[in-house]
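Problem: given the chain below (485 residues), write out its structure.
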Amino acid sequence: AEAPGCVSAPWCARSQQRVAGLFTRRLPPGGSARVPTSHFSLLTSFYALPSRAGSFTRRLPPGGSAHTHFSLLPTLYPLAQGPLPAGCRQAAHHGLSSLAPPPFDLSPANIHHTALFTCFPARPGSVCLLECLQTMELLRLLTQTPSVPGREERIRRVIQDAISAPGLFDEIRVDPLGSLIAVRKPRPAAGQAVPARPARVLLMAHMDQIGFLVRHVDDQGYLRINPAGGFDPRNLFARMVRVCTADGDLPGVMNAAGRPVHLATEADKKKIPEVTEFFVDCGLSPEEAKRRVRIGDMVVLDGPFHELGHSVVSQCLDNRVGCWALIRAIENLDHHSCEIHAVWSVQEEVGLRGAGPAAFAVDPDFAVSCDTTLCCKTPGVPDEDRVSVAGDGVCLHIMDGSMLSDMGLVADFETLAQQHGIRCQRAILPRGGQDGAAIQRSRSGVRTICLAAPVKYIHTIAEMTHRDDLHSYHSLLTAWLQSLT
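Solution.
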C-alpha cells in the first residue's frame, strides 16, 4: 500500500543496475513529512547496503510537488555535515538495519525505520549535494571506465547506454573516427510551431582520457609505455595502474627506473625522470607478461571515485565531467526550438583529432565545447594565476591557448545566468586547448564558446571539482538551449 498523498514508485532501468524509485508527494512550504522507508524503492543489486543510511539535499519550489530519487546508500550520499545550502532541504534516512550481502532481505522486519525530511522555500539556483542516485553513479561510472585516445570503445558504450533512454534523442550514430553523435529534434511547447529552419546547435565533450599505450615488454616482464596525452612525471611515482588487455584487465604498479631511496645518491634524488622512463610491473613472470600483454594495450592510472567535503575527487574528471554535464543538460530539457547535435568526441588529448570531422559533419550554427579548466587557487600559486575559483560556478572560457570564445555567446550565457540565479565565472587559460578550437575553424567558421568546470590538480589521479560547479554547469547549459529560438 502507498503512503497517503504519494503515487506509485516505478523502477527505472539504467544499464545493468536498478536505480532508486521515483515518487511524488505534495508538501506545504516549510512543512515536513514522515514516510516509511518501506515505501522507498531500494537498490537490490550492484551495491551492498551498509548499516548507516545516507542523506542528500534537493531544490524544492514552495508548495510544489517533489519528484525525488531516494537512496539508502551512504557510499554515494554520506550524511551531510555542516549547514545546508540556502534554499535546500535535507532528506536524512535514519536507522537502517544491518543487512547481509546480496540478496537483501527487504522485509518490514528488517527495514522498519522512518525517514524525516523537511522542505524550505527554494531560491533560484539552490543546489543539491548531488541530485539523485543515478546522477552520481553515472559520474562515478564514467571516471572508472578506461578509455585513452584511440581506445574509446569502453566509454562510448557507457555513454551510449546512458543516452539511449526513450525520448532523450531521436538519432544516435558513431562516426568513422569513433565519436558518438546523438541528434535531438526540436520539441516546442504546446501552441508553438517548429521553425522552418531551426537553429542547429553542436554540444561537444571529449570522452578520451590521458593514459599510456604499451610499447614494449622486456625480458624481465616489465612493460615499457608511451604516453597518450600530457603528464607531469612528478605525479607518476609508485602509482597503481590498470593494464587493459584483450583477455581482461591486469593490475600493475608504475614507477620510474632507478635506485630506491635507500640506495639513491643526492643527484638521483633531485632528478625528475622523463615520462618514457616509467615502467609497469604486473607481478607476472616474463613468459606470462609477454603472453598476456601486447603492444598497443592501454594503461590507465587506477584510482577510486571519492566525495570529499563539498567536492568530488577522481581520475579523469578531465573530461568525464564534460561528458556528464552534457548528458545531464539534455536530461533536464523540457521544451526547446533548436536542433541539438550532442557529440562525445575522440582523441582530444592528442591534438583535437576527433572534433574537426564531427563538426564538419554537423555544420552547426552555434557550438559549445564542454570541458574542464585549471583551478589553481591553491598554495604556491600567485592569485593572478589561479585561472578559476572552486565553487564560483562553471567557467566561461574567454580564451585559452587554442581559441577565443565568441563574446556574443559569452554575453548571452552571462545574461541567462543572472536571470536564473546560476553562478558562473569568466576564465582565461594561458596555455592548453580543447575541442572548441577545431569546431570554431570548421567549414566557413562556427560561433563557439567553451564551458569548463574548475578542476584542481588536473591531469593527476586526484582531480577535484566542487559540487556547486557541477550543478551550475548543466543548469546553465540547459537554460541556454531552452532560450534559443
